[in-house]
Write a structure and sequence with these properties.
With 217 residues, the chain is mostly helical. It contains 8 helices and no strands.
Amino acid sequence: MPVRERLTLPRFAMLLLQLFFVGTATWWLMRSGGGSRGTPPLQPMLLAGCLWIYFLRTCFTALVLLRRPLPWSEAIGVSAWMGLIYATYALAAGRSLGDPDGWAWAGLALYGVGSVLNSGSEWMRHRWKLRPENRGRLYTGGLFRYSMHINYFGDLLLFTGLCSIAGSWWTGWVPAAMAGMFVWFHIPRMDRYLAGKYGEAFAAYAARTKKLIPFLY
């Protein structure tokens, strides 16, 4: 399906809302970090850049990778959730950020790894699914050979990295809440769907592959 046909009203509204959220978060970070000193220090700019990269990846996912219809309920729910996340990092960091320390650079590295795991795994699966000979088959290759939900694990890493960049311990509620939703809601729901669709192929895949964290769980 061409990109222009996927830009339905719910999708457009979701991306427009998130653009507003990331723009507002950036304004707050630049204003709070700079104040009367003029140019903001590097750390709030680093955090704002990471938020923008995440927004652009969201656009790529919504317009290229997400091939199914997007209902209004999901568009509104995702937008509200992301608005809360953008506000969390902006409000926590905007008051006190200066120049990056070791924790901030470590967080940036973690953010990069998580982003690659999430978008990279989704892109490899997307390209595999486009090949006619793979129609109706379960994808178990690429990064998904190390974890059944490696894309979720990537999200946990990148948002943990953002916590480190922000330098506020209480922002840890974001990856903690995500981990809870993944383990108790999203993963069981997805596994039930995949088991119903792929049967024995999924059962064999689940028996040999970790659920979320490679080599551990």
